[in-house]
Amino acid sequence: MFKISEDVRKQIESLPHKEIFVVTIEGKEICFANIDGKPHAFLNRCPHAAARLSEGTCNARGIISCPLHGYKFNVQTGKDVDQNGYRLRIYKLQYVEGELFIQL
User: Fold this and answer.
1) What is the pTM for the complete model shown?
2) Are 38 and 94 in contact (CB under 8 A)?
């Protein structure tokens, strides 16, 4: 587990709905989204054509659309909404004594 810094944790927790925040952790670009008050993390790369998902759009239900071909993924589960056979790489987040950790 990798500890998220306090400054980054606060930015993630204060993200408005539909906004994406990107942080590079151990060489990986990780996107964070705040869905219904709960943070979620996923790789900033579409599994279809490797486009940067941070340049796409995310709705209030946590569905992100790829800016390249429009593929849609659930940022909470990684599931391909359109059932094209792809899966978004998501990362488990966990709070421990008020600190946020990510499992890479």
Assistant:
1) 0.93
2) no
Answer whether CATH 3.40.50.300 is correct for domain 2-103: no
DSSP string covering 34-91:
EETTEEEEEESS-TTT---GGGSEE-TTSEEE-TTT--EEETTT-BBTT-SS-B--EE
The 10s digit of each residue's pLDDT in 64-85 is: 999 999 999 999 999 999 999 9
| Vertex 21: Cα angle to 8 and 2 (nearest 5) | 45
Other residues' Cβ atoms within 10 Å of the Cβ of residue 53: 28
Q: Cα separation of 101 and 104, whole Å?
A: 10
Residue-range domain boundaries for the chain: 2-103
Q: Which of 19, 69, 20 is nearest to 49 (CA)?
A: 69
Look over the chain and give the mean of its residue pLDDT values, rounded to a whole number.
95
